[in-house]
Amino acid sequence: MFRFLIIFVTSLLVLFTLDVLTVVEVHLIDPFNALLAAISAKLIGLFGGDAIAQGKVILSLSTGLAVSIERVCNGVEAVIILVSAMIAFPSSWKAKFVGVVLGTLAIQALNLVRIISLYYLHQWSSVWFEWFHSYIWQALIVLDALVMFLLWLRYLPRLSAAPAPDEPPPGSPPVEAIA
Question: Is 52 helix (H, G, I), strand (E, B) or coil?
Answer without folding.
Answer: strand
